[in-house]
Each structure stands twice: as C-alpha cells, then as structure tokens.
Amino acid sequence: MPKAPALTSPAPVDAAAAPSRAPSTGPVRRRFRNAPPQLVVGVLLAATATVVLFFLFFELKGNAGYILPRRAIKVSAMLLVAVAVGVSTLLFQTVTANRILTPSIMGFDSLYILVQTVMAFALGAAAVVTAPPTLQFGAEVVLMVAFSALLYRWMFTGATRSLHLLLLVGVILGSLFRGFSSLLQRLMEPSEFIILQDLFFASFNNVDPALLGVAAVIVAAVCAAVWRARHTLDVLALGRDVAINVGVDHRKVVMRVLLACSLLVAVSTALVGPVTFFGLLVVSLGYQLCRGFSHAWLLPIVVLIGAIALVGGQLVLEKVFGFGTALSVVIEFTGGILFLYLLLKGSLK
Length: 349
Hints:
mainly alpha, 78% helix, disordered N terminus
C-alpha cells in the first residue's frame, strides 16, 4: 500500500511532459526510421535532382554556352566523389565491423600528400603544378593501389591474417607518411610550400574533363562489381563466423572488397584531393536514415546523401558566402565534430 502512491504519482507528471516532447522529435524520428526504403531513396533522389538542377541553372546569366559546361563538369566531379567515397567507406566499415573506421585510416590521404611532397621537393612545386594531368593522375592511382595491394597481400597471406593488425599497420604507416611529408615540407622554400599547400585540399574548380571521364569509367566498373556482391556484403556484415558458416570465403571476399575500396579512394583522391571525414559523415547519416536496411538500400542512400552534401554545400558556399572558404574545409570541420560526437557517445565498437 505505501508504494502505490509512489508508482502512480509520477504518472501525471510524465503524461503532462510527454505532449511537449513528443511532437518535436519522438514520433517524427520513429516514423521516419520506419519509413520503407523505397520512400527514403525516392525523397533523397528528388532532393539530389533538385540541388543539381538548381546548381546548374541558378543565375545562369551571360554566355550560357561557356558557363553551363563548366558547371556541369564541377557537378559531375562532385557526384563522382560522392559515389567513390561513400561506397568505399560503406564497404570498409562492413568488412571491419566498425562504424567509425574509414579508408583514410589506412594512410591513403597521407600517401597522397607524401607523393605530392616528394615530387615537389625533387622537381619543384612549379613542375608538379604544370605536369600533364593524365600522367600525374595515373601515377597517383597506381602508387596508392599498389601500396594497398602489397599491404593486403602481406597481411592476408601471412600466418596472422588479422584484420585488426592490418588496421594497426595502416595507422602506423599513415603516421610515418605524415611525418616524412612534414620533414620535407620544412626543408622546402616557403614559396614552393605555398604552391604545394593548395594541393592538400580537395578542389572541384579545376577538374580536367579527360580525367573525369577516365575516373567515371573506373568508378562505374567497381560499383557494378560491388552491386553484384551486395548480398554477400549483407552476410559479411553479420560477422566473420557467420559468413564462414554459410559458405563465404571470408579471406578472399574481404581481400576483394578492400582492393575495391583502395581503387575508389585512389581515383577520388587523385582527381580532386583528399576528403578525410566526408565518408564518415555521409555513411553515419545513411545508417541513421536506413537503420536495418540491406546494402541494396544502403548503397544508393549513402551515395545520394553524399551528392546532396557536396552539391548543396558548394551551392551554399558560392551563392550565400561568396567563396568565403573551401568546401573541403567545411566538410573536415563537420566530420571532425561528428567524429568527436561518436567518440563521446561510445559508438566505436
């Protein structure tokens, strides 16, 4: 009897407080998460098309024959990066069973900076900037893919075959690349370092159309192979033991997935530059929008979120802030905040 008032007395307080909280987040968030994946993809696709069309035709004044193709190249580059980075990050998190790791943890961005720094230190920053784009693009892609292929082959054909050891080696090599790059940059002339520093940030303003076509073919081929393996990726997401029990050659499949990630990241980085936290940002949002969905829905949702983020962000920077800052800086800042939020939230498992 004495406990009855204690159990019933808080009820009116909670009931009174519930109406003020429920309309704001609870039911809306619950209803949105329970939405069918077709609806989520449809809404994101419509938003992507709207943002792209708005970017292409908003304030289209003067010589449209000159302005429109330049805008189309810039939009195409952003869409290509959204596909490459989004898909590679999702695949990497699937095989590592961790929602905070990205391919950048393996040292790809650090390797890109090291390649640029070594070439500028040996040949001069002016020679790097004026080098043929096709040659520079091909060399960067080959170096990054070769680095990852040798690392994966060494780790998965040895006695350990440990994915955790692979991640640890990637972190160490990334730190080594950054340290060596920093040393060479301190030995360079200040004028050459200023020229080199512009290459360390992603830029969509000076993308070569020929390189864009080559990169699009490579990304399309890799994404087609990934799409055919989407059901296998669903099995990998359940864990190594489950995948082996249902007959999946875990080591072989993981090796192929990591190589696909390497190729996508290499193409994206060589085309526009490094975007470290962009993959973490869009994939985290994708998991929030389609929690429990398979890769058949995760893949398009992540790509569409990335397209909206890049095109919409560039549109806001150009039309609202007047190129006050680079888009990559905003992405890194936002992604860094998300990274700290996930750390504090305890999602790093």
